Amino acid sequence: MATAVPEIRLRDLTVCHARRPAVHHLTGRFAPGSLTAVVGPNGAGKTTLLRAIAGLHRPEEGRVELPREARIGLLPQQAALDRRFPIACLDVVMFGLWPAVGPFRRVPRALRERASEALAAVGLAGFEARPVGSLSAGQFQRALFARLLLEDAPIILLDEPFNAVDARTAADLLRVVRRWHGEGRTVIAVLHDLDLVRREFPETLLLAREPIAWGPTGEALSAANRLRARMMAEAWAEEAGACTRGDAVAA
Ligand SMILES: Nc1ncnc2c1ncn2[C@@H]1O[C@H](COP(=O)(O)OP(=O)(O)OP(=O)(O)O)[C@@H](O)[C@H]1O
After folding, report:
1. What is the pTM of this model?
2. What are the ABC transporter domain coordinates in residue numbering (predicted)?
């Protein structure tokens, strides 16, 4: 990796959907080269935070501080992607090159070869021409990792990277994450498997719309912090409207 890795600073960051805060007053920093898990209950604002860091969602208040030219690779949740589009595996990987090559340009042969190498590096050698619609969930996730390899960004954001993949695929993809960390990139991953987080991620941000804890994983995931996060989530469920006695009778 040739580029320097910039720090990511969040200052009093608030990001909303339809004016309701999904991330509320979050302040802190991701040090260059850090490996951080973002955890928290469903609806805690984890995806929203990644999208805000990637510049895809404008903050309502506060800001994400990053140099304008910072390059970020984002792995979205699989559920957010439509795989019915008739496109070959190699083309999906080569999407990772368009910031360098420009849209609608013919990709030079050397770069196509790099895309093939990236596929091979994630265990998909020979899959170049396969339509993405025919890939299994695990194979598709491998192809998206190949795209990130090709992008070569100093900051990598992963939204539930090991979801819906089998143990072997998860282990292979985890090796890629370790490699990125070893190369000094900043990696931020949204995860639900706390055992995996404890084993592999030195830093953790525990989010429940409000920040609950951010720091070394062992401390951030203390029983008291996890309880606080759960209680916050229960409070949102109550906001959504409690079941009334009348509803119960009608049911
Ligand atoms: N496009 C949207 N429009 C309206 N509300 C949204 C939108 N996207 C997310 N939200 C709401 O914002 C809140 C945070 O959502 P987000 O997807 O960031 O949470 P999450 O922590 O990633 O959840 P999960 O673990 O379930 O993936 C939720 O209440 C969600 O319903």
Report:
1. 0.91
2. 8-234
